[in-house]
Sequence to fold (719 residues):
Amino acid sequence: MTGNNQKWLDHNTFHHGEFWDILKLVEEKEKKGLKISLCIPTLNEEKTIGKEVLILRSELMERYPLIDEFAVIDSGSTDKTLEVASNFGADVYLASDILPEVGNKRGKGENLWKAIHQLKGDIICYVDADISNIHPRFVYGLVAPLIRREEVHYVKAFYDRPLNYSSGLRSSGGGRVTEILIRPLFSLFYPELTNIVQPLSGEYAARREVLENIPFPIGYGVETSHLLDLYDTFGLEAFAQTDLDRRVHRNQTTNALGKMSFGILQTFFNRLHAQGKIDKLPDLETFYRRFEVEDGVYSQIAQEVIEEERPPMIEIQGYLNRNQ
Amino acid sequence: MTIETNTKDAALESLLKDMPSLIEGLRENRETYLTDAVLLGEIPSPTFGEEDRVRLALDRFRENGLDDPEIDDLGNASGILPGSEGSSSILVMAHADSVFGSDVRHVLNVGSDYITGPGIADNAIGMAAVVGLPNLLEKLGVHLKDDLLLLINTKSLGIANLEGSRGFLETKQRPIRAGICVEGAEQGRLSYSGLGALRGQINLRLPSNYDWHRFGAAGAISHLTRFVSQVMEIPVPKEPKTKMVFGEMHSGSSFNTSPRSGSLRFEISSEDDEVVHEMETQVNELCEQYSMETGIHVMMEVVAKRKNCGIPFTHPLVKTTRSIMSEAGVTPAVDPSTGDLNSIILAGHPGVTLGLTSAENVREANESIKLEPLYSGMAQMITLLRAIDQGLCES
Ligand SMILES: Nc1nc2c(ncn2[C@@H]2O[C@H](COP(=O)(O)OP(=O)(O)O)[C@@H](O)[C@H]2O)c(=O)[nH]1
Ligand SMILES: [Mg+2]
Fold:
């Protein structure tokens, strides 16, 4: 297996620097007749969304027509996110307005899922809105392998050159949740998936054919479930990953990471069961419990975290009608 | 003569009439130059360390199809947009360096009507205006007879003393009709002369055998403050306009250790070179006197010295610029430049410095520009280019 891992790493791990010639990518894309949509999910991101829309639109739509559609899909921001985004020319949608007949659920995954219906591209590229050092590489680095290599279906971003040990500066690879939750779990159950440097990164691009065929957890589990479901169907070969150098974004508290891990674990165990890796699953609790101490008094806080899932888009009547 | 003046007036009149549509065009096409401003501005570019930012500017020159894009020995990036006749050229330049060091987080925020972040006003937006000119002119349907010589120059600020632009103009042997220096702020500024100035550093040092027991003995800070108050006694004339600014002072490193050395940076500027010279002599005399009376070493080091230079207020370039500004609804504020304009004028070319928009907190981490005034600020620059191109800025 180690040999295979190495082969995959060598063959399917890229650096954005390989794709600097955007003009060439545009030519290849047009030759293959591909359309690319960019989706940015948002919830109260007025600080960073303006720059993301400005830079990505003007570099990748105006200067080089690499992307054909630029959409911000919002969960109901109460700040100026929508105003700023449309000011700089993004198509702005409320997730709740898309496929209204299926109802409205709250969470980033919901927006990503509804994007499949709303957007027209053969390739959809998702980029989080909270990146403060946004640069065109965040998009072209992810769509390029899909344009160049037909067998690749899903491209993940990773950051900070964690593979470059020779510099002496060895960064940890993923974030905290990746390193102390996902990587151990993958090592136990899906060792091949440990080749993916940052399984939780919020930036990835994929082909419509695969996105419409997988379910979408609406919350924290969406990235994990994508990996597990696509791996189950296609194996590691369907994946690629691109080093996008540095990503600067807001830092989460440890509490928030705990809650996030709780959501991811629900997704993970459900997949283990569904894929026959474990036999029987008890009813999983949905309350995330932690302690707080104030003036020497301990009290427990319980927060409900339910990882609801949307079914594969291909099963939604509204989507099928759209395709006719 | 009168006939010629009349046709010139008519030509200018017609350029001014185009301004409102130019402003709209610049508003519609803002994405490209705002993006350049952000991408350039997020690359640290301290004076003497501008390489990375200049390289991006050069890439843009290439992408925009300029002739001869190149980086010279001083690190300046330049390129040429050929005009339809090309018998002479117009220089448009912006400095690449900023007062922020590489350790400062260079992150800019983009709002609907502002951009905030270190160096956006001085001078990322100015650079973006220069870098984006070829595309903008194309989109706006503006075609020039003259070649446009675009320059992103290094080593402008502080002790660099305009080294970049001076070097460029000394070596670039092209017929230059006029030059425009582009600064992000402040819209309405109009510089057509360079102010004579002296930048100096006072270095004060206790001798190694300093006698701390002697009556009146004190550390470098006490001496430096005493000395500075003496320098402040030097009379500063109102006429000719003269200014003395104390910009930076350093000494010591802790609460309770008397430092042995200190330094002060200052600038004297005056419309009259003779006044600068006299004040320099006086500071030198004070240094000598203080050293003799106290046994402390006090010396002035002249970091940079510049003569007054400029074109007159009545020069057609200045007159035309004023007409353009007032058409754009801007009240010109005449302000002699201490910047790269000096290099243009000293090289024998007429030139002006323009500010593009209004800014706040310039040279602080929360430096900020307003977008709304930017469109008319850019329109004034492009209209001036057209006016120069049509020969409306020379007698
Ligand atoms: N947490 C959260 N993020 C959302 C939601 N809807 C859209 N988003 C966007 O999803 C992206 C990732 O969110 P974030 O909380 O930063 O998750 P993280 O990057 O995984 O820590 C950001 O662009 C959010 O603005 C939502 O309902 N909840
Ligand atoms: Mg985030």
Q: What stands out?
A: Chain A has eleven helices and twelve strands. Confidence is low (pLDDT under 50) at residues 161-170 of chain A. The first strand of chain A starts at residue 13 and ends at 15.
